[in-house]
Amino acid sequence: MKIDRLLSIVIVLLGRRLVQAKELADMFEVSVRTIYRDIETLSLAGIPVVTYQGGGGGIGLIEGYRLDRNVLTDHELAQIFSALRSLSPYTGDHERLMEKISSVVPPSRSQQFRSIASQQVVDLTPWGLPGASEQKLALLKEALEESVTVSFAYVSAEGTATVRCVEPYTLVMKGQSWYLYGYCRLREDFRLFKLHRMKDLVKGTTVFTRLELSLRDLPWNDYPGDRETLTEVILHFSAKNKRIAEERFDCSELQADGSGGYTVSLNYPVDEWLYGFLLSFGSAAEVLEPQNVRQRLGELAAAIACKYSPAT
């Protein structure tokens, strides 16, 4: 992934005065053109990378610039190490970069670093064997690296099916689901696409020029709908099922009911996602309010019970 390569390039340049672009391209298995784009990205980010022309030239850091290794503590390096490890099943092999991060830590503190890095593990992969999502992510990663379009059939949350051609910009994990953020040529605007809703994903050959996007304008930090449509939903968990509530909700969200159980009050959009979420608790949770959600959930539960009832 590009961020891994950028970090690796900085680490290489910190250890060497000059490096040939071709050597970096071979090291990271990309084109020389891609390396020069990376150098431009690093310069825009404030890293003083310069290119020296001539027989003894190459790519290096501006004279006198060196990053003090003490800028990052062992604990902070361990956090970066853990984050890369959590993403590696989805975004490829990070072993080379993780080893470079480990090498920054002096041997005398290596054991402590490894201990800190192993204290927290974030595994985003689902239970079971790798599935279609991993294949889609690998293909989209290639398209992002090459700045080429992708096409796919897409089914919206409302069930509308369309065929999209998209310029991919960013892969986003939000709420335990992967999304693609990119420019949709059909809608002539940027859109967020859920990977699970994509079918027949194909990487194209049309190269596009990436636009500079403001981080303030990215859509996944806010609920995409109208906040006025959010409804207060009150759930109740009996004492028998309190452990389920403790596993799913933060302790600050749980209100003791005086009988050993909990009530939980949260704001949700009333849509199909909400009913699927509520049904995932089975009989462990009861919806107290609002009445329309309670009634609809009862209808869905009755339909499920009917489907699995023995034939009479």
UniProtKB/TrEMBL annotation:
Keywords attached to this entry: DNA-binding, Transcription, Transcription regulation
Transmembrane parts of this sequence: none
One Pfam family of this chain: HTH_11
Gene3D superfamilies (UniProt xref): Winged helix-like DNA-binding domain superfamily/Winged helix DNA-binding domain (1.10.10.10)
Presence of keyword Transcription regulation: yes
PROSITE patterns: HTH_DEOR_2, WYL
Residue ranges occupied by any HTH deoR-type domain in the UniProt entry: 2-59
A GO molecular-function descriptor: DNA binding
Keyword hit for Nuclease: no
UniProt cross-references to SUPFAM superfamilies, sorted A to Z: Winged helix' DNA-binding domain (SSF46785)
InterPro entries in the record: CBASS_pafABC_assoc_protein, DeoR_HTH, HTH_11, PafC-like, WCX_dom, WH-like_DNA-bd_sf, WH_DNA-bd_sf, WYL_dom
Protein name: Predicted DNA-binding transcriptional regulator YafY, contains an HTH and WYL domains
Biological source species: Paenibacillus sophorae
Phylogenetic placement of the source organism: Bacteria, Bacillati, Bacillota, Bacilli, Bacillales
